[in-house]
């Protein structure tokens, strides 16, 4: 807004709300010297946020040829830094975890360490046509080497699938739906970043996890907790993905374009497609952080918003959120339907200051932040523990998990012809 420009009546009302919220939050901020205690979160979901999975399950880790994991990482260590890196860090965590068993006969779960998103293009994106071939080859290997896959056809196995559309292995929804979940994984439990109700790529019983965001990098950008939250609504990212969606209508189902077109000139919306060096600091100065869908329903900014105490504004219809049985997302977020984006300003303005304060207090809990982060080394209650807790809550295995001798359920020849090619 230029100097001397009088805000419109709606903008003035929103400014008043923003000022009120900011004042409340500054007043509620703890002194810098105050130590946060690791306390249990109130609310139905939060009752299991700090569960300890040790003693509740045992996991056997298959010893795989290095071509399925280590060689891929050695060839391109960019895999350690992208949003799909959970598949690598989960492997490292389990190798040293107290839930690991060296005796497969006593295992509750079997884990195949295969880095399907670590085969990257020159631009740093996973090669979608290679991922299903890598996974299929890995399953062929464990089925031929050990007896455990064959007795259940994967019903007591879990796989990491941190791809845009999970085990459909593609970043474009139409292509992902066409491919469908890799047929050999349809009895297994998928631990995946993708989560959307009633979607072809969402398998029943999947465990939805947050995308990877570097904990150390975020820690290095923390500012004083007493800093005023002077930004009402904040967003940095693409509004149009012209490289993959030239007509500009399919990306994010048009939700991001709608955010931009409706609020690019609104003084309360601090938005840009640029990614400034102060990005993390800016999130800590914001009351609301917009978290619209992109190609998939999620992005790392959801994790960043939680870590920085910025109320996530989730714009993604039918989203299944990470660890939804442990994290009380309804209590810490604002949900906006994609069709309601043109009313986003009035929706946020209608959030009562006391509700803003309540959400901020929940977000300030160390346990809440811990649960969305894959720490190295691991910490109690972090995302690794939440994955294990999710697996433990699925025990004992359902009736019919173990097949009769000679019984077959899965068709090894099902799927796209391109996915059946050897890797």
Can you give the helix content as a percent range? Answer: 25-40%
Question: How many DSSP-defined strands?
Answer: 10
Question: pLDDT under 50 segments (min length 5)?
Answer: 1-11, 24-46
SS element count, helices? 15
Supply the helix-strand structural class: alpha/beta
User: What's the overall average pLDDT, rounded?
Assistant: 89
What value does the Rg take, in angstroms?
A: 22 Å
Question: How many separate domains make up the residues?
Answer: 2
Written description of the protein model:
By secondary structure, the protein is α/β, with parallel strands linked by helices. The chain folds into two domains: 59-212 and 385-396, no CATH class; 215-373, Rossmann fold, CATH 3.40.50. Helix content is 30%, strand content 10%. The protein is built from 15 helices and ten strands. The strands form two sheets. The chain has a five-stranded parallel β-sheet.
A few lines on this structure:
By secondary structure, the protein is an alpha/beta fold. It has helices at residues 9-28, 70-75, 86-95, 131-145, 148-152, 173-179, 215-219, 255-263, 279-284, 300-307, 329-332, 344-349, 353-363, 366-370, 383-392, and strands at 59-61, 109-111, 157-161, 189-192, 207-208, 231-236, 269-272, 286-292, 311-315, 334-335.
Descriptive key words:
423 residues, signal-anchor, glycosyltransferase activity, 5-stranded parallel sheet, 10 strands, 2 domains, 15 helices, Rossmann fold
């Amino acid at each position: 807004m230029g100097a001397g420009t009088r805000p419109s009546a709606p903008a003035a009302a929103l400014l008043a709300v923003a000022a009120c919220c900011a004042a409340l939050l500054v007043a509620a901020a703890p002194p810098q010297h105050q130590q946060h205690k690791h306390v249990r979160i109130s609310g139905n979901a939060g009752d299991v946020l700090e569960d300890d999975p040790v003693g509740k399950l045992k996991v056997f880790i298959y010893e795989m040829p290095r071509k399925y994991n280590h060689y891929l990482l050695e060839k391109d260590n960019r895999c350690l830094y992208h949003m799909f890196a959970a598949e690598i860090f989960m492997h490292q965590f389990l190798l040293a975890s107290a839930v690991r068993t060296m005796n497969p006969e006593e295992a509750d779960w079997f884990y195949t360490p295969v880095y399907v998103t670590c085969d990257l293009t020159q631009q740093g994106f996973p090669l979608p046509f290679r991922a299903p071939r890598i996974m299929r080859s890995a399953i062929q290997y464990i089925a031929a080497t050990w007896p455990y896959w064959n007795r259940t056809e994967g019903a007591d196995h879990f796989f990491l699938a941190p791809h845009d559309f999970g085990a459909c292995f593609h970043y474009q929804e139409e292509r992902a739906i066409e491919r469908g979940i890799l047929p050999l994984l349809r009895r297994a439990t998928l631990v995946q970043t993708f989560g959307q109700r009633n979607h072809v790529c969402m398998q029943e019983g999947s465990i939805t996890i947050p995308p990877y965001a570097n904990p150390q990098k975020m820690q290095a950008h923390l500012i004083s907790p007493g800093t005023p939250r002077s930004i009402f609504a904040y967003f940095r990212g693409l509004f149009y993905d012209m490289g993959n969606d030239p007509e500009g209508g399919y990306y994010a189902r048009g939700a991001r374009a709608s955010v931009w077109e409706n609020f690019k000139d609104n003084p309360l919306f601090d938005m840009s497609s640029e990614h400034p060096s102060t990005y993390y600091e800016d999130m800590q100065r914001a009351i609301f952080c917009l978290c619209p869908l992109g190609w998939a329903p999620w992005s790392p900014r959801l994790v960043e918003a939680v870590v920085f105490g910025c109320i996530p504004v989730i714009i993604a219809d039918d989203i299944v959120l990470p660890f939804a049985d442990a994290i009380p997302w309804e209590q810490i977020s604002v949900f906006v339907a994609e069709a309601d984006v043109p009313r986003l300003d009035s929706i946020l303005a209608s959030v009562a200051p006391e509700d803003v304060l309540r959400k901020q207090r929940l977000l300030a809990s160390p346990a809440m932040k811990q649960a969305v982060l894959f720490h190295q080394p691991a910490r109690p209650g972090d995302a690794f523990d939440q994955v294990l807790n999710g697996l433990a809550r699925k025990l004992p295995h359902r009736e019919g998990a173990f097949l009769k001798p000679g019984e077959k359920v899965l068709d090894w020849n099902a799927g796209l012809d391109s996915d059946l090619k050897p890797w």
